[in-house]
Amino acid sequence: MEYQQDKTFDKQNFTTTPVTKGEYENCVFKNCEFSNADLTDVKFIDCKFIACNLSLARLLRTTFRDVTFKDCKMLGLHFDKCNEFGLSVSFDTCNLSHSSFYKTKIKKTIFKNAQMHEVDFTECDLTATVFDNCDLLNAKFENTLLQKTDLRSAFNYTINPESNKIKKARFSLSGVAGLLDKYDIEIER
């Protein structure tokens, strides 16, 4: 297992040259290609991913501790397969469509300007999470903890208040319609 610290990886293609198994601490990955890469058992601590493509990367027991993703393409990722100990991530202007956070505990996570079509948040703990200007079209919320979650600027979501815990969650008036979808009623503006 290799240990890398304080390094910047720029324009690396990890689909042709696999990621070296080990621990990466305080590293920056810029414009790197990780699509379909195997990140099994790799540890990323205090790392930044900027303008990377991680779509369909394998995340079996992958550690993401205090990791930031900015301007990344992250389609179909299974965060539910990651090492759950210390899982701490934030996303800014990323496309996370078709990804899964099934049963993950990601309290206080920041999702900013993210496209999150058909993301699975079933049984996820999203307590005090912020969805800032996020498109949650067809995202799945079932038995999800959304207590104190901020969805005021999120849009296109459908959340059933009867099958999710939404106490003290914050919504905008225009977004409240997403809480009533199950009733198949028409709301006029």
Protein architecture, described:
With 189 residues, the chain is mainly beta. Helices cover 0% and strands 21% of the residues. 35% of the residues are buried. The model has no long low-confidence stretch (mean pLDDT 95). The chain is built from no helices and 10 strands. The chain has 2 domains: 74 residues, Pectate Lyase C-like (3 Solenoid); 88 residues, Pectate Lyase C-like. The chain is elongated and about 55 Å long. Strands 1, 2, 3, 4, 5, 6, 7, 8, 9 and 10 form a 10-stranded parallel β-sheet that branches.
Throw out a few tags for this protein.
189 residues; Pectate Lyase C-like; ten-stranded parallel β-sheet; elongated; mainly beta; 21% strand
Number of DSSP helical runs: 0
Task: Indicate the CATH class of the largest domain.
Answer: Mainly Beta
**Pairing-aware structural class of the strands and helices?**
mainly beta
**Structural shape:** elongated
Number of folding domains?
A: 2
Q: What series of H and E elements makes up the topology?
A: EEEEEEEEEE
Q: Determine the strand fraction and express it as a percent band.
A: 15-25%
Largest sheet: 10 strands, parallel
CATH architecture classification name of the largest domain: 3 Solenoid
Uncertain regions spanning at least 5 consecutive residues: none
Distance between the termini: 58 Å
State the helical fraction.
Answer: under 10%
Task: Tell me the number of strands.
Answer: 10
Rg over CA atoms: 17 Å
By CATH, the topology of the largest domain is: Pectate Lyase C-like
State the fourth-level CATH superfamily of the largest domain: E3 ubiquitin-protein ligase SopA
User: On the 0-100 scale, what is the average pLDDT?
Assistant: 95
